[in-house]
Amino acid sequence: MVNFTFSTFKKILFVSFPVDLGNQTLENNFKIIFNNEMKFFRFAGDHLIPNSKKISFYKSVYFRLKSAFSLRKNVLASTKDGNFILFQNLSPALFSYGNWSRQNAIIVLDWTRSLNADTYGQKIKKNIIFYVHKKIFNKCFKILCWTDASLNHIHKVYGVNKSKLYKVPAPFLIKELSIKPRITPIKPRVLFIGGDWFRKGGDILLNAWESILKSKCELTILTSNDSGITEDVKVYTNIRYGSAEHNKIFEQNDILILPARFDAYPQVIGEAAAAGLAVITTKFALGSSEVVQHGISGFIANSPEESIDYLEELLKDHSKIDNFKYAGYYLMQHSFSADKIRKIYFDALGLNEI
Fold first, then answer.
1. Architecture in CATH for domain 175-335
2. What span, in angstroms and rounded, lies between the C-alpha atoms of 43 and 160?
3. Residue range 223-246: mean pLDDT, rounded
4. pLDDT for 53 beyond 90
5. Which helix (H) or strand (E) holds 176?
6. 209: which DSSP letter?
7. What does CATH list as the number for 12-172+337-349?
8. pLDDT per residue over 58-108, tens digit each?
9. pTM of the full structure
10. Residue 4 CB: number of other CB atoms within 10 A?
11. H helices within 231-297, ranges in order?
């Protein structure tokens, strides 16, 4: 058996998996927050190649197979060196199976293939992929979950013992996002960010804009597809995450609304709170309760449609908008600093001496 000791830095190999924009952001955040404590390997990095169309499932599998040899080589070397392997999501753990052990493999995640169905009380499809994933989850040493929803889901659906499941914060970069709250103007400015238009509830917001919201606020939308959006809405389609322009858009708005139909942990709600915006979203944005205190720093609606009702309510009360801004800003500063995130992760991994 490999003897795992952690008296020095760089005893963790973080295997990132930048399969989409959200995971690319998380990869970057991990590299910045844990730069002094982890080594890094990017799995299936071809997902980062610029493209005008969404990558198909089959091409995505090809990217994973193409990267599998190098992945397995790095994971095996790290295992032999007595390192922990921290996998971003399940896929890199699956493609390197056999080259890590029960004592050193950890997965960090907020999502599984069956989480959506479980959230809505639907029947979970238990095909061969389900049972392969179940085996990987149960073979791992630990699983770090960003939400209670994902932790309870993995225990209930995949049968993972709760002693292996740990709750950890999402890796927000508060220092780079921190913008102190601004006083709300006479006509509040509302922001929506979402590339997956339907899943994020963009259609619901746009319908409400045309029927009831247009006279009450200004609206800015960051998305990958601006088709069907009216001319009286500010639309941005090519804003680079973390750029000066990206931060300026946060600074120029007062309320973020995300009427999500489903989102495991939309990073944007935490980013918006850290940038001094009030936040309105739904309980189907499963990480919402981690960064939004309902009625204190924002609203968590029971449905996408109800989020519009909350927006109407909030637009009538500028003092409440300002209060929400400050409450959300200070919650993010207190709960998601880099030092605090590192401590919680190392506590979960048993690496307190690092």
1. 3-Layer(aba) Sandwich (3.40)
2. 25
3. 82
4. no
5. helix 174-177
6. I
7. 3.40.50.2000
8. 999 999 999 999 999 999 999 999 999 999 999 999 999 999 999 999 999
9. 0.92
10. 16
11. 244-251, 267-274, 288-291
